């Protein structure tokens, strides 16, 4: 089974929020409500430097995924 790159998630303990879960490296969870990102990787100092450049691109991709999913739900 091939997993998707992004998943949408929610939790009844946090009903006001939706999360985008990125399943490829670097794995992270993005809160839609407040934009906070929880990185699920242990980064080296070099990785952290690269993440400063690449991180916003991953967040942009995640938000594009979210917008696309919302449009698809509205079409149904």
**Looking at the chains present, what oligomeric state does this protein adopt?**
single chain
Helix content: 40-55%
- Element string (H = helix, E = strand): EEEEH
Secondary structure tally: strands: 4
Shape: globular
Structure annotation, total helices: 1
Biggest β-sheet description:
4 strands, antiparallel
What class would the helix/strand composition place it in?
Answer: alpha+beta
The largest sheet has its strands arranged as 1-2-3-4
Question: On the 0-100 scale, what is the average pLDDT?
Answer: 95
C-alpha Rg (nearest Å): 13 Å
Proportion of residues in extended strands: 15-25%
Q: In whole angstroms, how far apart are the ends?
A: 26 Å
Low-pLDDT ranges? none
Topology of this structure?
Layout: E1 6-9, E2 19-22, E3 28-31, E4 37-39, H1 45-75
Antiparallel strand pairs: 1-2, 2-3, 3-4
List keywords for this structure.
globular; 76 residues; 1 helix; four-stranded antiparallel β-sheet; alpha+beta; single chain
